[in-house]
Design brief:
It is built from four helices and no strands. By secondary structure, the chain is mostly helical. It has one domain.
């Protein structure tokens, strides 16, 4: 009997949150179900896009936060 995998199962697989036995079952399903394979490739692409979109705040933003922190005395900042 072939297990039916959900979108959430694929997301967990993409983020390596599945157990080894579940990995084997998903990999078998991916080899047999082209629609599932397409969804998997789309999730990989989305993960890559999100990873590339991760950015650090600008220097101006950091300074604004630090100045606000000084103004309300949340955390002492050494000059």
């Amino acid at each position: 009997m072939t297990k039916i995998f959900t979108h959430d199962d694929l997301i967990r697989y993409v983020y390596e949150e599945t157990e080894p036995e579940e990995n084997r079952q998903i990999e078998l399903a991916l080899s047999e179900d082209m629609e599932l394979l397409e969804q998997y490739h789309e999730l990989l692409w989305l993960r890559e896009q999100m990873d590339e979109g991760m950015m650090a705040p600008s220097e101006k933003t950091i300074n604004t936060i630090l100045e606000y922190s000084k103004a309300v005395n949340l955390h002492p900042v050494k000059d």
